[in-house]
Amino acid sequence: MSLKGSVMKITQEEIAAEYANAVNGVQAGVVGQTGSAKFAGYSAAEVELVPEGVAQTSFGCGNPVAFSEVLPGQTVLDLGCGAGMDLILAARKVGATGKVIGVDMTPEMLTLARQNIARSGLTNVEVRQGKIEALPIESGSVDWVISNCVINLSPDKQTVFNEIARVLKTGGQMLVSDIVADNLPLWVRRSGLLTVACAGGAISEQAYLSGLSQAGFTHHEVIAREYYDAEQMASVALGVLPAFMANRKLTKQLFARLAKPITTKLWSARIYARKS
Length: 276
Hints:
The chain is an alpha/beta fold and 276 residues long. The protein is built from twelve helices and seven strands. The protein has a seven-stranded mixed beta sheet, with helices on both faces. Helix 7 links the parallel strand 4 and strand 5. Mean pLDDT is 81; it is low at 26-35 and 242-247.
């Protein structure tokens, strides 16, 4: 699949609106915990490190902070930071002498992230509005780039990889959790809803690593994979449905039936790269 994502049938503005709806639904108690910390692999101890309710507004597919070797004093950039789960965890790793920056295109997410950061009492975190294809970040200024189930949403992934290489310092590192896919049916790729749910825009591991190579990374690898069953996939899709959707239990059952044939074609990968 092209890194330009030409098959994607939904705009970034529409994606942002759907995530705004999803986070508003969680806050209103309509969506519930479908984008759960448990699904993404956060431990109970990590959930205790963030304010109450933050974990329920995490729509990630992994836990990049836990598996990165972030050190005190370093600068970490989170692409598509959402409501701030990974920002807060990273901020506690870098300590008072370090810095964490989050970038997100959704105003509602940034508002919530700022509230959660304030509730955490952290002073070493800031968030900026922007797209990951044009990061509002100085070149060569960060030690780590992390991201959690976001790059698959981009219509131009090669530009994202180029931007990651641009903002990293020499020797800087990237660790992302993202959904990847192999031979997805065209109906999945053409579904706006499934793109929002991180399926329709997913590319293969080979395309991912090739894109990192083209961006100038000489060392890159897939270091872990997590496979999901049909019910787990249905939960993710349900988590970003409009809050007014009726009979969510029935809808989840339908999604589980639709997801069953693609469970072997879609998974979460933990991908690492280092800038020479």
